[in-house]
Write a structure and sequence with these properties.
alpha+beta, 2 domains
Length: 206
């Protein structure tokens, strides 16, 4: 039996649904998982995430309005059922952000650090007298590598940027390499050393 004054459960009736005030508010599952959340909650406006430019604002719209839309678009047993399901979506979104996204970033970085182009550029820096004098020894690469490594059969190209650090100073390395007939060759490697404003051409542009 409904409690006196309780709102009738009209979930799933679209525009005719009365949205209970206790479910209004920010929906973290809708914000973090957007289109997946939309499919699971029959809120197909979330598929606008695939529209360029619109996808920048849609997560915030879903976070703000998602609970209301989900209540209107899908039948729920009661408010508690709705809240329980939305909590699961929020936890799933948190797991994606904390675990999966860093993994998606770390794996490409690991691949780039293991590439021949990266190893060649770092070896060139370590073997360059001016770079050794400016940075000090030993010279080590930083944790993060940005850029890209692309290959197509025996050919490819790489554009990389990463930090380097020695016993005297730190610097920022930029490297460009090409792969021809299965062999990588450096085309340019530059180390910028903020201390003293130096730019050291380890491998001059070819």
């Amino acid at each position: 039996m409904d409690k006196p004054g309780a709102i009738e459960n009209t979930s799933g009736l679209g525009k005719d649904a009365v949205v209970p005030p206790e479910i209004r508010g920010w929906n973290w599952g809708a914000f973090l998982l957007n289109f997946a959340w939309g499919i699971g909650n029959r809120t197909y406006l979330a598929l606008l995430m695939f529209v360029p430019l619109v996808n920048f604002v849609m997560p915030f719209v879903l976070g703000a309005k998602g609970s209301e839309w989900a209540w209107r678009n899908r039948a729920w047993r009661d408010v508690e059922h709705f809240k329980a399901v939305q909590r699961k979506w929020a936890w799933a979104g948190l797991i994606v952000v904390v675990v999966l996204l860093p993994t998606c970033v770390a794996v490409p970085m690991t691949v780039m650090k293991q590439s021949d182009a990266f190893q060649l550029s770092l070896a060139a820096i370590r073997g360059h007298a001016e770079a050794r004098a400016a940075l000090g020894e030993p010279i080590e690469a930083g944790l993060f590598v940005t850029g890209s490594v692309e290959t197509s059969g025996p050919d490819g190209r790489a554009a990389l940027q990463y930090s380097v650090k020695g016993s005297r100073a730190e610097g920022e390395a930029s490297a460009y390499a090409v792969k021809r007939a299965g062999e990588w060759r450096l085309r340019q490697v530059v180390v910028a050393v903020p201390a003293g404003g130096r730019r050291i051409a380890v491998v001059r542009a070819k």
